[in-house]
Amino acid sequence: MSFSDVEKGFFYLLRGNRKNRRGKIKSSAKPDAALEFFRKGFPKQRLTLIMITPPIRYIYNVPKRGGGTEIIMFNLSVDEVRELSAEYNIIPLTVECYADMDTPISVFKRMQTEKDCFLLESIGESQVTARYSFIGRNPFISFKSLGDEITVTDYTGKTDTYNGKPMEELEKIVTRYKAPKLPDIPSFNGGAVGFFAYDIIRQYENLPDINPDDLNLPDMHFMLMDEIIAFDHKRQKIVIIVNIHVGGDIERQYNKAAGRILDIQREMADLSKLQEKETREYRSVSKMVSNVTKEQFCANVEKAKEYIKNGDIFQVVLSQRFTVETSVSPFNTYRALRLINPSPYM
Question: Torsion over CA of 182, 183, 186 and 188, rounded to 10 degrees?
């Protein structure tokens, strides 16, 4: 088949499992008829036909879970992205799909990588789940600090280490990126996700620092994400978000982001990871070990009571850290915790 046989009309991008082809298609062609037309020319390839019909790009994706053809819509066209790029340097491209057969846990299980991924959930009063759950992976920047030493790693693996005030340095990085507030997409559609440890306060307050650091964990660790899967529990929808980094050829960057969205959809449709037989994990029989003895802890309680009696302090939080060796995976540990102790900050 020659693409010259196709009548002039809408521009399309034909994605196959071997290569991409571009051309035109008859503007009156229906999605199923167009796909059948191309299947005859490429019988051994799995095809995705992308048609650009301003102002929205429609994707006719083959196959979908359970068979058939699925129509998907991007939130922005190339021209709209080009217009926004005059003011913004990172622009969210999104696609919605149904979430009634998926959960954040099942999708995270399929999408998780060995590291640099996250799942944020929140369960508030009366065990009510917050509107959104977020999954992210593949950060384009990783930011860590320990004391005043800062380590920044980009998506290529290039690492830069220097000294400075951690929170201010992170703010400098985040403010490089300016994104539009678009309607009908989650308020968090990309950005920095991570944690602050208590010891970060020592960079801003002169406090005693006598406890040994036997864990060597960072005081701050944040990942800048441009690939987000948002569960909208209210609307029973999943919003797949890939941010376009503006620079150079806008259409090329648009197509790259669109391709990543399609790849995410294929991964979400692949249930093989859920069907893998897991090794049964039993509760550990190892004994829990504290970092202080019972006698030390009781002595600390008596000392705190004396301080309160003398008016030196009015409250104190005494703590101890329990550790145990176990073969249970962190993900399955989290699954147990979210059932036993759901909270607004999971």
Answer: 30
* Regions in the chain scoring below 50 on pLDDT: 1-29, 51-63
- 278-286, Cβ contacts within 8 angstroms, sequence gap of 24 or more: 281/327, 281/328, 281/329, 281/332, 283/328, 284/324, 284/325, 284/326, 284/327, 284/328, 286/324, 286/325, 286/326
DSSP, collapsed to helix, strand or coil, labels residue 90 as strand
Map residue 188 onto helix, strand or coil: coil
52 three-state secondary structure:
strand
- Distance, CA of 90 to CA of 222 (rounded, Å): 18
Q: State the DSSP code for 202.
A: G
Are 257 and 93 a contacting pair, CB within 8 Å? yes
Q: For the whole model, what pTM was predicted?
A: 0.75
Name every residue whose Cβ is closer than 8 Å to that of residue 259 and which is 6 or more positions away in sequence.
Answer: 15
Element (H, E) at 250: helix 250-269
Pairing status of strand 20-26 against strand 9-15 = antiparallel
Q: Write the CB contacts of 26 (distance below 8 Å, at least 6 apart in sequence).
A: 6, 7, 8, 9, 34
Residue 256's contacts (CB-CB under 8 Å, 6 or more residues apart) are 244
User: How far is C-alpha 10 from the geometric centre of its chain's CA atoms?
Assistant: 34
d(CA 126, CA 117) in angstroms, rounded, equals 29
List the end-to-end C-alpha distance of the chain, in Å, as a whole number: 54
Six token digits for residue 260:
């990543």
Other Cβ atoms closer than 10 A to 84: 20
Q: Which of these, 107, 127, 75, lies nearest to 241 by C-alpha position?
A: 75
Question: 102 vs 105, 109, 184, 196, CA distance in Å?
Answer: 8, 11, 21, 31
Please write the tens of the pLDDT for every residue from 223-269: 999 899 999 988 889 999 999 999 889 999 998 998 899 889 888 88
